[in-house]
Recover the amino acids of this structure.
């Protein structure tokens, strides 16, 4: 077993190591009696800050999530460093807010995620997934990420918002930059100014796209989410242009890449575990709900979220000081051997499966969890019934990122 003292989560090299090595490293951190502290990674955009504690045990992450007054999101939730002011304009949406402002925005946007709204989307999800399967059958093979995994969530989110097909590519490229991690394919390596510029440009592109749409929908509402958001009246409140822009960026980023990666990893996992695949195919409806949860647990598309201590406090015996940064490693909690028996095993019948892939129990729990579950279910239902021979035909080309467990490309054959 690896020694916790040999693990450096701030070293980009660590995130390039094989998955098994990284899982071993997190296991070592989980068994350390104290929370382990790391320096902040040098991301060249801002000066290095005071560092962070890695929260790697399931019970600790649940506890932090339940205490938003003590462990807030408002000083940054998606970035280890404190983002400079101009970045907040684009990336400071509800995920990086605390109540009461967070509750206000969540109340407004939740209208789009009620079970009734999700049911309305279901037909759409079905229709898009079946179009994808037809195209894939004709192509016979290629890159699964481009042909399948990226297409469904992108189309569903753009449709929800009322974004036309001519803008899909723009949205796809911009989200790749925003969540590009340390991957030189998407962001210039080690050049702070260039990285900041690329991020701001991608944010601005998405913001302009939705602001223009928002103006049109204010004048002439339709039945899309943008119309609902700009014309919403929840206790007399609606979203400002600024709130609409940053919410849209959050939605396309949070809803696209995460679901895309769950679907891509899903095919890879089912290919590498033929007995699990056979079980799923044998009675899809019976096994799908647990299989989807297991894919999300096993993959953990979002590796961590940050919280910051608002006061001196104690977290399950660990002393925490006001201002301390805590990284909640869902990726590690989802392998916690105290909660999941045989936690490294991919088991589509796992029950119970209290994974934290969609976040812990708290005000920020993933707003799109139901939608994501639907998309993953429908995509695999259509794939396994329409293309029973589809499989990954090579190793995934992984995204270099400490934040997202991403797959850039995955070769497949039918
Ligand atoms: C497998 C797919 C997905 C995964 C693994 C995932 C994961 C997460 C996680 C870990 C959080 C943060 C929880 C926290 O800070 O406590 C989150 C928040 C969020 N997610 Fe998801 N997500 C997925 C799909 C989606 C989809 C499809 C949408 C929308 C269409 C979405 C929208 C959001 C939003 C808006 C938030 C912020 C909620 C808030 O701050 O109140 N997510 N998600």
């Amino acid at each position: 077993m690896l020694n916790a003292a040999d693990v450096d989560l701030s070293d980009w090299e660590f995130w390039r190591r094989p998955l098994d090595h990284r899982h071993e490293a997190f296991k070592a951190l989980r068994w350390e009696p104290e929370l382990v502290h790391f320096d902040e990674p040098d991301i060249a955009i801002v000066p290095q800050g005071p560092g962070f504690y890695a929260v790697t045990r399931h019970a600790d992450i649940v506890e932090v999530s339940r205490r938003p007054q003590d462990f807030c999101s408002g000083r940054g939730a998606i970035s280890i460093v404190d983002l400079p002011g101009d970045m907040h304009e684009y990336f400071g949406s509800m995920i990086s807010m605390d109540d009461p402002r967070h509750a206000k925005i969540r109340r407004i946007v939740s209208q789009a995620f009620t079970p009734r709204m999700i049911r309305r989307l279901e037909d759409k999800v079905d229709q898009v997934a079946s179009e994808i399967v037809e195209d894939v059958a004709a192509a016979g093979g290629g890159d699964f990420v481009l042909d399948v995994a990226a297409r469904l969530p992108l189309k569903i989110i753009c449709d929800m918002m009322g974004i036309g097909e001519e803008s899909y590519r723009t949205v796809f490229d911009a989200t790749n930059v925003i969540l590009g991690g340390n991957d030189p394919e998407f962001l210039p390596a080690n050049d702070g100014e260039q990285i900041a510029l690329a991020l701001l440009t991608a944010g601005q592109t998405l913001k302009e796209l939705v602001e223009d749409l928002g103006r049109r929908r204010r004048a002439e509402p339709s039945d899309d989410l943008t119309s609902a958001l700009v014309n919403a009246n929840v206790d007399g409140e609606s979203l400002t242009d600024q709130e609409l822009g940053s919410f849209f960026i959050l939605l396309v980023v949070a809803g696209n890449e995460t679901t895309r990666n769950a679907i891509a990893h899903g095919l890879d996992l089912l290919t590498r575990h033929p007995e699990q695949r056979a079980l799923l195919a044998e009675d899809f409806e019976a096994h799908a709900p647990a299989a989807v949860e297991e894919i999300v647990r096993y993959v953990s598309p979002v590796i961590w979220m940050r919280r910051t201590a608002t006061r001196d406090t104690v977290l399950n015996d660990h002393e925490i000081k006001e201002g301390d940064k805590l990284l909640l490693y869902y990726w590690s909690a989802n392998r916690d051997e105290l909660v999941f028996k045989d936690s490294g095993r991919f088991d589509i019948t796992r029950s119970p499966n209290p994974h934290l892939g969609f976040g812990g129990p708290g005000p920020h729990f993933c707003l799109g969890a139901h939608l994501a579950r639907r998309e993953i279910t429908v995509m695999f239902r259509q794939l396994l019934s329409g293309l029973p021979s589809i499989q990954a035909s090579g190793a995934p080309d992984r995204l270099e990122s400490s934040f997202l467990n991403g797959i850039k490309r995955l070769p497949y054959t039918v």
About this structure: The radius of gyration is 21 Å. The longest strand covers residues 304-309. Residues 126 and 278 are 23 Å apart (CA to CA).
